[in-house]
Amino acid sequence: MAEQTGIHKISAIRKTYIVYQLIADVLFAAAFSIVIITIVNYSLHIALLWAVPVFMASLLVFVFIYKTWAISNTSIANFLNRQYPQLEESSTLTLKPAAELNLLETLQLQKVEAELQEIPLPHKAFFKRIKLALLLLAIALAVSWLAGSVSKQVHYTDGKRLSAEKTAVPEKILPQISAVNVHVAPPLYTGKATRQQDKFILNVEDGATVTWHITTNIAVKQIFLLFNDKEVIKLKNTDNTQWQVNKVISKPGFYQVNVDGKLSDLYQVQVITDQPPVVRIKTPKQYTYIDAGEAQKININTAINDDYGVSSALIFATVAKGSGEAVKFKEYKLNFSSSFVGHHPQYDLQKLINLPDLKMEPGDELYFYVQATDTHQQQSRTDVYTVTIQDTAQLLSMDGMLTGVNQKPEFFRSERQIIVDTEHLLKDKDSISVEQFNNRSNDLGIDQKLLRLRYGKFLGEESESDINPADDKNDPVGDIKNYGNAAVVLDKYTDKHDNAEDAQFFDPELKKQLKATLTEMWKAELQLRLYKPQNALPFEYKALRLLKDLQQKSRVYVAKTAYNPPALKMEKRLSGDLSKIDQPLFKQDIKPGTDQFENLKKAVIVLEQLKTRGQINDADKHVLALASQQLSLKASAQPGAYLPALSAMRRILSNQKGVNVTDVALVEKAIQKTLINAIKTPAAGVAPTDLGLSRDYYKNLKTVN
Amino acid sequence: MNWNSIVMIVCILLAAFAVWKEYARVNKSRLVLRMIAALLAVLALACVALPLTYQRDIVKQDKNEVILLTQGYNTDSLKQYATVKTFTLDEKIKKENAKAVLLSSLDQIVADSTVTRLRILGDGLDKEELQQLNGLPIVFYPASVKQGITAAAWAQKLKAGEPLTIQGNFKNASAKKVKLVLKGLSTGLDSVMSNADGDNPFQLTTIPKNTGKNVFNLLAIVGTDTIEKEDLPVQIEPVKLLKVLMLTASPDFESRFLKNWLSQSGYAVAVRSAISKDKFNKEFINLDQFPIDHLSQATLAKFDVLIGDLAVLKTLNGGEASALQQEVTQKGLGIIIKGDTTTHSTSWLQRDFPTDRLALKEPLPVPLLLQGELAKTDKFNAGLVYIKSGGNTQSLVTDERAHVFAATALAGSGKLVFTPLNNTFSWMLNGDKNDYTNLWSLLIGKAARRLPVTENWNTLSAIPTMSKPLQLLLQNAVAPLNVKINDVSIASAQHSLLPFEWEVNYWPGAAGWQSVQQAGGLVNWFYVYKDNEWSGIRAANRQLDTRNYIETNHLNSLVTKQIHEKATIAVSKIYFYVLLLIACVFLWVEAKFL
Fold it and tell me: Is this entry keyworded Transmembrane (chain A) (predicted)?
């Protein structure tokens, strides 16, 4: 019995082990199949029921990989030996047949048997795989949940797309037509290849050649295409079932197929028109002013876009020389350096223009615009841009200063002197020593500073002598005689606003410009002191230009005018003889034109009745047919918006059995869209039909009062 | 000879015979007793044969109450009246509730004298039905309308270009927001979201593009479900063109633009602008030429509106001035007076409209508010002069600070409109045609002489439906000949007090537009709704009518509670059988044993 209990215990442990491993296999399989199904469902949108066979298959795979049932009692016994020291490496003895046991083994067996009974059935190592499997399962579930929420959104958008497609009415084809093949050859300018479609609805480029190949399932006599209810195109047949014709499409509208007198549904024709190229100049700005001393170059940076392709782009430049009546123009056509052979839809172009190359001198102006042509020979051009080179001769001229009205003090002119001196210094640069050059430059800087200080006074700036009062020997405050004389101290330190000499009589705008002038002078002085008269020149010119502007501004004034009308003689007023003067008389008849929407408005009443009655009589048909003509005109102009309504109207007119309410709604919507807003006009109220009762009431009320 | 007399004669003969037999009997003992017994037996026999009744006082409320089920009743509230007799007039309710007895008319309840009180469950009865109750006391505790449109009002007749405005109330019982949509020609034109839970007053508006008979729809939508769809019938008539006379002190832009706008819209315009002393520039557009140098009453009678500068109107000579005043006060001509800087005058044209100047140096551009328009106009330099409010005037144009820039007052049967605005053309110059047309449509519309009409049709029933009779009111000077509704002749009845009103009762046979026409008159249209439309409003109306009925019959029901009514009760025959038996037994026992 002893042996048996030992064997039983070990096989019980083995069974427990196998059960735990199988549970782990199931969990692994579940995790694996969840991941697989999530991925497949996400990419291929298959049903979730596929999870079941996938799970079964993966379970089989896992079970057969591990083959946990193949574990022997010996392995278990060995495992127990390793895990439990109290078994003293002897648990295998229980597996040995009793007959083969020697004495020692028998004794040991008895001891081990007792120990074996104490060992618990599951060992914690058994749970290892289960734990791992649970973890994997949790991860798999999390992944599938995440993927599910993502795919839900994808599904949602899918649904939207589907519903949008659903609203497009499916094309109805005449039963005689077994197949249709429409070749669309887009025009050359698009650069697109010929394409085919098996639908009648056309959405083609402007000028595309469309060829219809219609195959009928029975022999028919003739097939027409009816465009916009007017134009008839006959199809040519190769045999009685093969028909074809081609047509260049340049107008939107609709058409019908007429097979032996039977008309098809209305098919929409939409035309994609070519847009002219779009030209945008990034640099320079619309008005560019090149100051003296700046590089006389402009860089034209342009972006050109077109929906199909750009074939060429040119700069049209005009140079204006001289002024007043002596102005002369010269035109140039400048190419961009890049080639347009590729007819790409987009180009970024650059062109550097050296203005002296165009024989431009100071004072001249350059006007230019960029013109682009697309492959459909449509042109578009930019606004005119202007580049002006500053005229230094004008600036330095003495013309303005010789006129009598100039009221400005002497020192306003010395900026010009500084410029002349600077230019002279630059000319002499090669013939004099560096030291001399630097000295003269520095002297010019000092001149510039003095000029700046004198201008600063106008703005109420402190003069340099104020910086250190101790240097001033003539300071009355420092004089001992004036000790205690409050008037002298006050005189020095108070800001005397009411003093006419100091009062700042410039308006803020003028002050701003003066400040800007001072800033330019500062910069010029800096460059001069750094012995860089070349760099100082632009600042000097700018300062001079600002000063000139100031001068011009100060000259603006309006002359006073005085007019004293002679006194009116009241007795003579309106006393002239007017007997021979005719009275003007004007007679006109403006009759408002007939209401162009009369037919549609009548149709509305009929449609309203149809909603409840559902049957259509001949009088109604006549009214609706007139409205239908008007809608057909609309549909040929805007097939996208009006074609569904027109076909609905045709259905209403042709249907004998009854009228579909949705068709009525479609037509009504189109009519509402077509009708123009009513304009309010004055309207009188209605008098009561009361045998004059209210009038009598008012009359009597008056007598009572 | 009826049953009673036959029985009496036979019984008297029988009694005489019995008495004689008793008298003729040998054994004379207990003769009196036997004679009495015989007479009693005959009497009892007679009473058995005769239908004997007696009158008794009963208390009315003790008698039985019955229940009438009407639309909108609650099945749960019916449970507590399980034993009470239940009636209904509605086949649908009969189908839902098999216990209820379907009545063809309320007369059947009223005729039953045992019914003393009627308990009405649901929304109640119509006026016509309540009339049939003949003062029968009723008990009525209606549930308020839970969800739906409980009120709605809109103008059923419009002029072209006028906005259609629907105002009403939507009662929302659910926690979801409800979208109310105004639809015309299957196109959504205006919409509003109602709050969840509670009463939601709403207003929807659109300018109809169409003319003629139109049916707009009012939809209540929850999510994607339409819970209510109601018809809004509207007749849009073309505007009748008016004749306008303009008198100006000098040719100016204001009158020039006004003239151009009116004449291009097809109106007849005559303009007289002074260019010198007694010299006028005259223009006749869409109008035959005639002398307007001097205004006579005959000249003025040709026009509907006179638009004139105050300076011109005040300086009219005596004859002209009195002709104008006569025409306005007696014949209803309207005047639009364009004021100037004079603030006060005693002239009848300016008396009602004292003006004042704004305390500003420069007039600022301000948006104006026009009567009947919700939106403000574009900013506009209205000038410094404004009309002081007060007096018997109605202000038409105001700015945001309630300065009045146009007002109207009655002058006899005519109307005066006064406005100091004199540069409205600047709107036109700015391309703002809308504000310009709105302002002048308002002013001219207010002033214009009222159009004389010979007949006027009105529907008295608020929401006429197929299942109810409807009343039409015709205002007409003479008795209408042959009124036809949908080509069926209908009789009309004259109002007992107002001789120009005629009433026509009609039971519509179909929903939709119905034509009505009197001989020699124009075709008029009225709309009949389907039975399921405007159920909320109709339920509310029925509740109101039923409550009114209770109010008016309140006294009646109180009195009947106290008065004991006489009731005829048949005497049970069993007493007489017993009496006959006793009498016969006495006679038999006396003869046998005594």
Answer: yes
**3-state secondary structure (DSSP) of residue B469:** coil
- Please tell me the pTM assigned to this model: 0.60
Higher pLDDT, A464 or B125: B125
Q: How much is the ipTM here? A: 0.70
Angle at alpha carbon of residue B118, lines to B114 and B123, rounded to 5°: 160
CATH topology of domain B148-235: Immunoglobulin-like (2.60.40)
Q: Decide: residue A287, CB within 10 A, 0-12 exposed, 13-18 middle, 19+ buried.
A: exposed
Q: How crowded is residue B206: how many other Cβ atoms within 10 Å of its Cβ?
A: 17
Q: What is the dihedral of CA B254, B259, B265, B266, to 10 degrees?
A: 170
C-alpha distance across the termini of chain B, in Å: 43
Contact A37, A50 (CB under 8 A): yes
Compute the nearest-CA separation of B184 from chain A (Å).
Answer: 8
Residue B330 Cα, gap to closest chain A Cα (Å): 9
Q: Are A440 and A528 in contact (CB under 8 A)?
A: no
Q: With 0-12 CB in 10 A as exposed, 13-18 as middle and 19+ as buried, what is A652?
A: buried
Every domain range in chain B assigned CATH 3.40.50.880? 243-447
d(CA A77, CA A90): 8
pLDDT at position A394 is 67
Q: Which two tokens stand for residue A214?
A: 């219609």
Q: Distance (Å) from the C-alpha of residue B346 to the closest C-alpha of chain A? A: 20
Is the CB of A608 less than 8 angstroms away from the CB of B213? Answer: yes
Interface contacts A/B by beta carbons within 8 Å: 166
- Residues 6+ away with beta carbon under 8 Å from B237: B157, B158, B159, B160, B211
Could you give the CA distance from residue A292 to residue A423 in angstroms, rounded to a whole number? 12
Give the amino acid at A593.
G
Domain with CATH 2.60.40.10 in chain B: 148-235
Tokens of B360: 């500003």
Q: How far is CA B177 from the centre of its chain?
A: 31
How far apart, in Å, are the Cα atoms of A205 and each of A644, B135, B471? Answer: 22, 82, 64
> Do A93 and A74 touch, CB atoms closer than 8 A?
no
Residue A490 reports pLDDT greater than 80: no
E strands along A553-655, which residues?
585-588
Q: Give the tokens for residue A39.
A: 């991925």
Span B455-528: which CATH code? 2.60.40
Q: β-strands B138-140, B117-121: how paired?
A: parallel
In this structure, the dihedral spanned by the alpha carbons of residues B3, B7, B8 and B11, taken in order and rounded to 10 degrees, is: 180
Pairing type for strands B512-517 and B524-528 reads: antiparallel
Q: Chain B: residue nearest A694 by CA?
A: B413
Are B512 and A609 in contact (CB < 8 Å)? Answer: yes
**At B97, which amino acid appears?**
N
Contact B251, B241 (CB under 8 A): no
- Assess A601–B contact: CB distance below 8 Å, yes or no: yes
- Note the helical H segments in A235-320: none
- SS (HEC) of A135-179: HHHHHHHHHHHHHHHHHHHHHHHHHHHHHHHHHCCCCCCCCCEEE
Residue B80's SS3 state is: helix
Query: What three-state secondary structure class fits B377?
Result: coil
Res A497: pLDDT: 57
Q: What is the mean pLDDT of each run of 10 residues along chain B (594 residues)?
A: 86 91 83 89 90 70 71 78 78 80 79 77 82 79 79 88 88 85 88 84 88 88 86 88 91 91 90 86 88 87 91 87 88 88 79 84 86 84 83 87 89 88 89 89 90 85 83 84 84 86 86 85 87 84 85 60 64 89 91 81
